[in-house]
TrEMBL record:
Protein known as: Secreted protein
Annotated spans, Disordered: 46-71
Transmembrane parts of this sequence: 6-23
UniProt entry keywords in alphabetical sequence: Membrane, Transmembrane, Transmembrane helix
Source species: Streptomyces alfalfae
Length: 71
């Protein structure tokens, strides 16, 4: 019984520690917008990649319900 209480105590302490760390960190903003610019560029690149590698762009035909090969 003591072992179970010890395990739950350690898990509770770890959870409490993580909560304190997250609350202390807060929602502080960066001093510059470099991170936001990087995020926007990656999002734009992901959008371009989705359009470039879409099924109709790759195969030059509309996607069908059935694949040409079965697995």
């Amino acid at each position: 019984m003591a072992t179970i209480l010890t395990v739950f105590g350690v898990l509770g302490a770890a959870a409490l520690f993580l909560i304190v760390v997250l609350l202390r960190r807060g929602g502080s903003r960066t001093e510059n917008a470099d991170g936001l610019r990087i995020e926007r560029r990656r999002r734009e690149q992901a959008s371009i990649d989705r359009a470039t590698y879409h099924s109709s762009a790759v195969h030059k035909e509309p996607p069908t319900r059935r694949e040409r090969h079965r697995r």
